[in-house]
Amino acid sequence: MVRFSLLGDVRADLDGHAVDVGPARQRCVLAVLLVDANYPVSIDQFAERVWSGALPHRVRGTLSSYVSRLRQALAGAPEVTIARHLGGYLLTVDQQAVDLYQFRTLVDQARSTENGEQALDLFEQALRLWRGEALSGLDSPWVTSMRATLLQERLTAEQDATDLRLRRGEHAELLGMLAAQAGEHPLDERLASQFMVALYRSGRQADALKHYERIRLRLSEDLGADPSPPLQHLHRQILTADHTLAAPVSEPRVQAVTPRQLPAPPGVFVGRDRELTALTKAVDQQTAQGATVVVSAIGGGGGVGKTWLALQWAYQNLDRFPDGQLFVDLLGYAPAGKPMEPGEAVCGFLDALDVQPAAIPAGLHAQTALYRSLVAGRRMLIVLDNARDTAQVEPLLPGSPACAVVVTSRDRLAGLVAAHNARPIALDTLDDAEARELLAGRLGPERLAAEPDAADELVDRCAGLPLALGVVAARAALRPDTLLAALAAELRDTATRLGALDTGDPAASVHAALSWSVAAIEPNQAQVFMLLGLAPGPDIALPAAESLTDLPAAEVSEALRALERVSLIQQHLPGRYRMHDLVRLHAAAHARQHLPLPDRDAALHRLVDYYLHTAHAADRLLAPHREPLQSGPPAASSRPHLLADKSTALAWFSAENPNLLATQRLVMREGWHRTVVHLAWTLTTFHSRQGRLHDYRTVWEAALATAARLDDHATTAMAHRYLGDAHARLGRPAEALDHLQQALAAAGDRGDTREQAHTHRVLAFVWEQQGDDQRALGHATHALNLYRPLGQPVREADALNQVGWHEARLGQYDQAHAHCQAALALCRRLHYREGVSNALDTLGYIAHHTGQHTQALGYYEQSLALCGQIGDTFNEADVLDRLGQAHAALDQHDQGRHAWHQALDLYRAQHRFAGADRVQRQLDALDHAPAPHGPN
C-alpha cells in the first residue's frame, strides 16, 4: 500500500518503505499533483507552481521527464496512476493515502460530530499527521503560499481542539502551550481569547486582563484597529467574573427500545463485491478512527438494484448494529409522484423508538432533536431508501458516531456528499457473468443450460439491468413450459422491448421505473432527455448536445446536470454523457410519442451536420495538403466545433469515432446519401493513420453501396480505391486487387487521370506486400508520371518517395537516394510533414541497407518524431520495426529490443498480425543472440 506525505517533507512510502521520488524539483511536481489529487493539472499550472519566473527552455519536455520518473518510482503501486489529461496530467489515487487529505477528512469529521470526546480524538489524530513544516525542502512562490495556507489550517484545527479541551476543564494543562502560541502569533484574537480563558479559570484574572491590554495595544499600533467584538465581550466577562465562563455540564443519556425495521432480505443476490466492500470499509474506518456518523449514498438509475444492495449489506452486517435498524421508503421516485415529508419519516422513527404520540413535540426541528437524542451513542443502522434529494435526507441524519446511515437515491445527492462527507457509491449495471448468474439463481441452471443461446440473448437484451433481468425471470418462472427462445424473440425488436419487460405490476416494470424518473424532471429537461434518445452512438459530448437540442451551452449543461442527478444519464468522462441501453429506448419512445416528426428530423439534421463539419475541420488540421471534398454549409442551427490544432483534432476524432460510425449508419438508413460519402471521406485520415483498419473498411463499404444507389462513377472509383487500401493494410491482397482493378476501370471510363494516379500508388503498396517489388515500382513510376502534369506537388512528392522506396527494396540504392532526396526537399518546401516523415523513413532504409547504420538511426528517429506529431501510428509501427533493425545491426540490443516491443504493441493493436509475427521472430532471435562485446 502506498502512502504520500505533504505535511512535512514531500515523500512516498510503499508498504512501509520509502520510495525515492527524486530531487527537489521533481518532488515539487509530485506535490502539485498530490495537492490536486484526482483532478487534472494543466501545463500552465505546473509552469507557474514549479518554476514560477525561472522557466526551463522546454517546460513540456522537462515536465514529461519528471512525470516519467515518478511513474517508474511508483510502478509498484498499481493503485496510483499519472496520466496525460486535457493538456496536462492527472494523478489518480485514493485520497486517504495522502496525509493532507487524511488531515482534512479527520478535521471535517471532528467539526461535524456532536460528541465532544469523539471530536477531540479526531482532532488529535489529524494533528499527529504533521511532521514539521509542510512541503519541507521545496521553494517556489506557490510552495510558500500553499505552506502558509496549510499552516493556517493546522492552527485552526489546533484552536478547535483547544476549545474542546477548555470545555473539558483542561485549562491548567493548556496554559504553557497557549502562552507559547500567543507569543508566536501576537495578533491572533482567537488564540488570545483561549489564553485569557485559561488564565482566568486558573485563578489568574489579572494576567488575563493584562494579556487583553497587550493585544489591544498591538492591534492599535500594527493595524490601527480595535479588538473584535467577541474579544471585547470576553474582556467584559472577565472583568465582571461572569459565571458563564465555566465549562458546560454533560446531560444524561436517554435509553430506547431496539427497533428492527429492515424489510426481508433479497432472495437471490449476485455480484456487487466492490460496492459491498466499500460499505464495509466506510464503517470500519469510522470504528477505527472514532469518526462522526458515517453516511453512504448509493446512487443509480431506476431498476439498477440500489435497495437490493442496501438490504444485502445490512443483513450481512446485522451484528455491527445490536441497538437496532431503522428503515424508511422516502418515496422520492414513486407512482404518486409525491415524496414523503421529512417530518413524517422522523415521526415514524420516533414511533419505532417507542416515543408515545403525545410526547412527540411539534415542529420538525424539535422532532429531529428528540430523534437524535434517542439514538445518540447507540450502534444503529438507518436505511433511508428512495430519497428524492439532500433536503429530504438531512433531517433524518443522526448526530451519533455510533450510527451508520445508508441512503439510496436516483439523485446523486451531491449536497449530502459536500455537507456531510457522505461516501458516494455509484451503482452500475451487472456484467454478463453476473446477469447470467442472476437468471440461473431465479430459474435454475438447468433451464439456462438447455437453451444457452437464448439465455445469452436474454442477458444481452437486458443489458445488465437487475430489474429487467428480474422481469424476464419472473415471466419465465410464471410460464415454465415456455421456451427461453420465445422470450428472447420478444426482446429482439427494440420497438417492443420495453413492453416485453413489463409484467403489468408497476413495481416490476422497467417502463414504469424509468417513467417515474422522467416525471421528476422539468419539461425542458424532459425534452433534452427525449432528444438524447434519438442521438446515434454510445455517448454525446456537450458541444454535440448543443446542436442536437438547439439550446445555448448554459441551458444544455443545466439540463444534462439535472438528468445526471436523477441517474437518467451518466457523465462517464468529463463533458461526455451516456445512457443505459434501456433508458435510451425509453427516451426514444418518449420522443416518438411527444415530439412531432419535423422536430425530430430537424434535431438529427443539426447533430449530423455538427459531426460532419467538425470532422471535416478536424481532417483539414490533420491533413492540410489533402484535396478537400466539398460538403456544403451546415444547417443554420448546427454549431460545428472549432478545434485549435492537430492534437485537439486527433483527440476529438478518438473520442467521437464511435459516434461518427453510428452517425454514418443513421444517415444511410435515412437515405442521406451524400452525407454517407462525406463522413467516410472525413474519417479516412484518422482511420488510416491510427491503424483503425476495420473502421476504415466499414465506412467505405457504406460509401460504395451509396455510390451505387446514386449511380455516381467518381464516388464509385474513389470508394473502390479506399477499400483497396483498407484491404491491403489488413493483409488481404486478393480483395485489395479486386477493388483496385475496379477503381482503375471506373476512373479510366471517366478519363480521371488523378484518380488513376491515386490507384496506381495503392497498387504499388499491394504488390510490395506480395513480394513483387518490380511490379510495385512499375505502378509507383506510372503514378509519378500521371501526377507531374496535374500540378499536384504534394502527390508528386508522395510518388517520388514511393518510387525511391521500391528502388531501394530492389537494391537500386543510388537511384532510390536521388528520388527520396528530391521528395524530401519538395515536402519540406511544402511544409508537408507526413511526406517528410515518409521520405526520412526511406532514407533510413537506404542508409541501413548500405551499411550506414548510425546514419539510419538518425533518419528513423526524425521520422518517428514526425509520426508522433501527426498521429500516424500506422507508419510509426513500421518505422519502429526498422529502427530496431538498425540498433540490432550496431549490437545495441537493449535499444533494439525496446523499439521492437513498441512496434509489436502497435501491430497487435492494429490487428496487423503479419507484422506482429515478424517482430516477435526478431525479438526471439535477439534473445538467443550472443551478448555484444564492447560498449553499445
From TrEMBL:
Residues 1-93 form the OmpR/PhoB-type domain. It holds the Pfam family BTAD. Keywords: DNA-binding, Transcription, Transcription regulation. Residues 1-93 bind DNA. It comes from the Bacteria. One of its GO terms (biological process) is phosphorelay signal transduction system. GO terms for molecular function: ADP binding; DNA binding. Belongs to the AfsR/DnrI/RedD regulatory family. This is DNA-binding SARP family transcriptional activator.
